[in-house]
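Journal club side-thread
Mid-discussion, someone asked how the predicted structure for our own chain would compare to the paper's figures. Pasting it here so we can look after the session.
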Amino acid sequence: MYRCIDICHQNWNKRTETQQQHTSMRSMSGLLRDTTRACSLKNYCKKTEKDIGKLRKEMDQNAERRQEAKAAEEAAKDAAMLRTRVDKCIAEKTKVLQQSIESEANKQQQDTLSTMMSCLMTGIRRICRDSVMGAFCRAKTQAGENKIRKMLKKCAEKCAKGGRPVVVPAKSKEKQPRRNRYTEKLEQCMAREWRDVCESSKNFSPEEKAEMVRMHQCLSDQIKQSCRRKVIKEMCIEAGMEHPRDKAKARKACRQKKAKKTAAQKQKTAKGNAKAKQSEGCSSPEVEKCVDAKLQSVQSFIKSLSENDNASLEDVCGCARIMLRKKCEAEMQQRKCAQQEAAKCRANAERAEEKCHPKEKGGAGGAATVVDQELLQKFRECLFKKVGGPHDIQPGRKVTIVGAGAVGMGCAMALLCKGVTNHMALFDAKQDWMAAERLDLLHGSLFVNNPLIEQCTGMEATKDSRVVVVTAGARPTGNETRLDVAQKTADIVREVMPALLEQSPKATFIIVSNPADVMAWVARKVTNLPYERCLSTGCHLDTARFRLFIGQLLGIATRSVHGFVVGEHGGSSVPLWSTVSVGGVRLQEILPVIGTARDPMYWSTVHKDVVEAAFKVIADKGYTNWAIGLTVADIVAAIFEDSNRVLSLSTNVQGICGITDEVFMSMPCVVCAHGIGAIVRPHLSDWEKQQLQKSVKVLLQAQSGIKI
């Protein structure tokens, strides 16, 4: 290898000395002497009457410009190719990042990543640019090495065919031939090629370097042949071209414009860095603590961009700190304003109470002590969302049950035995079965306050009902879940709901058919009923089971255990452990991780038992009816009494707990005379929020799969 480099330097020095000795104008007459005489420089000069020295200078300038143009064209092609690869890399990494955020990040992490998205995109662009450029440079180096190896292989094949091995020729002391312009250009081209060869062969193995030394003459012949073609083509172009327009001014203006752009970019970067340092210096420890916490929560997403480029990741983190610092400052300012507003409200309330109810005089207590109605109204709005306006209430207590199967008759028996109503109508497609069930109930009328149970030979018998309970639907078979039979039941609900509404336009409709949440959505879609008058039993029964199982474990009466189950009436329901209390003591205060994956007592098995409770009954009995019947009776009683009780019922929860889509699912609801009067806004833990969003996705997918 070193011998190759020495030879390169020797040849270059030797040719330079020879070139300096032959500078006479007579060398120009030998232009392309060995190739063609059609492009003779001497003849060209005689025809155009131009000075040979001046023309030679112009031709040199033209040759340099053509080389620059060719290099610029190749650079433009490479730049376009690199831009395409960088854009493709950015698109792929951005897509992977978005998918990772959607599938793995919680709501808080998504907000943080959204704030610093511009920084992440900057990091992605730098990472992709560096990786693509690195690969491009490696490919260029590899191409140079492959070129030399190809030339060596060609030489080896030539020797194998009978050629004699060649070695490095010794220095010749013979007199050098007279030189001309063609020879000078040829030697310049060969010198450039040899420099490239020596540069590209630095990473060769010792065997390959020895092969290069042995095949030096063969390599030189190949380089000379390649350069001869290039020089001949270039000089023939020179001989046939006119003197080009001088573009020195344009190039100078371009350089000045580029210099100004670079200076402006540097000034902008310096100003941004100064501003960042100033913001870092002025930020409070609380803000920095908030920034560190947010950055730590999304560290895994940042590292997923590139684990091999620490410099780019540091730049992303630095940029993200600036963005997150602004967000944290805004949050702290908002929190401070909220605290001030709350303190102001408390002070106003205390002043109003002292003014209207002085301490020394005492007071009646209760609701009479609250005098600031405006403040009370705001308090109510924070506690629950009011639904709908006043409605005309159908007089009487007539209840229609659609579907005289096991669930329907369970509802009928519970309504009669609890004394909720004594006026009932049964409707079913199987007339004989329905008539037999009606007679069976009438035979025991002596013991349930002599009820009026109407014979339904048509839809007209349901006229003027106060409440309509829809239990008709397809029963799950085998391993089918509630969602598997959704379409079958949806067809039944779509068929009966318009006719029922026509007979009882003021009624409240309670959907029991499974899947109850989706069927309530279907019923509302086909009738356009107000949301507050079309509801489902939802997780009211799940909540009852939840409180029962907790009471059994603690040895406490079910009525003394309080808490809610929300979400889907099914496998994705969400137990609100933050609401579970016994005697005013929240269980989460005793065990903060209760019900989560980190719970050492495995309270999550309680919710698992709630989900599997119905399947255990169905496995032996074939269906469930008594518990759901009592659940319906409890809801109807709350409506008739206008009790304003809070039950976990299924309705449209759009706008509650950050839910943006129209989806029917269970939330704590205030039950009034026309159905649902308000929806409570529960304060959920982070774990509960995540589980609730999963339940939303399950129900939205089920709703989208229904053909209405």
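Post-session note: Residues 245-278 form one domain.
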